[in-house]
Amino acid sequence: MVRQKRIDKLITILQYFSIQKTSLRLNIFGSGDEYLIEKIKYFESELIEIVFHGFKKNWIDYVGADWIQLFFSDYEGCPLSLIEAIKAGKLYMVSVDSPGLTQYMSRNCVFDDLLKLANSLVSNRDLLNNRDLSIFFDRARFLQEVLNMEGILNA
């Protein structure tokens, strides 16, 4: 858990769920700053279960098919976790609008604000990523996408 992963956004979402008395189970993979881990643990309650799995080499094998994955990073060079999830058929996901991530996701999974994202999770809105990634397997089109992303990052 590093700053780039925007754990503060996860904490904001947990605050919202706590206030709304929403029942959920949050599974966190990876490790990091103990201070941030303690801030997240603060929200554990009868309704909010938080499970820290630590670093797992094949983390995607631990993810249920119906779990919704949350991506909050400010940016991703190559979003390996997202690509691994898509490759494994784990397609329920949400993200804040973020360079390097959202080009791999359909619009119904991308939100410009945390409250809208949280509301979509609570309302069980359709969060199935149906983005066609076949263009990324075509080298010429993939190169164009990389150049487009580079232009966005350098803007």
Report a brief summary of the structure.
Helix content is 35%, strand content 14%.
Key structural traits:
single chain, 155 residues, alpha/beta, Rossmann fold, three-stranded parallel beta sheet, 5 helices, 35% helix, 14% strand, globular
Write up this protein.
This protein is of the alpha/beta class. The protein has a single domain (3-129), classed as Glycogen Phosphorylase B (Rossmann fold, 3-Layer(aba) Sandwich), CATH 3.40.50. The protein is built from 5 helices and 5 strands. A 3-stranded parallel beta sheet has the order 3-4-5. The chain has a two-stranded parallel ribbon with strand order 1-2. The two termini are 27 Å apart. The mean pLDDT is 84.
Q: What does the secondary structure layout of this molecule look like, with pairings?
A:
Layout: H1 7-20, E1 24-29, H2 34-41, E2 48-54, E3 69-71, H3 80-87, E4 93-96, E5 110-111, H4 114-122, H5 139-154
Helix pairs in contact: 1-4
Terminal-residue CA separation? 27 Å
**How is the largest sheet built, in terms of strand order?**
3-4-5
Structural class: alpha/beta
Largest sheet: 3 strands, parallel
CATH-level-4 superfamily name: Glycogen Phosphorylase B
The counted number of beta strands is: 5
Mean pLDDT: 84
* Shape label: globular
- Number of DSSP helical runs: 5
CATH topology category name:
Rossmann fold
Provide the domain count: 1
Q: What's the helix-strand series?
A: HEHEEHEEHH
Helical fraction equals 25-40%
Residue share in β-strands: 5-15%
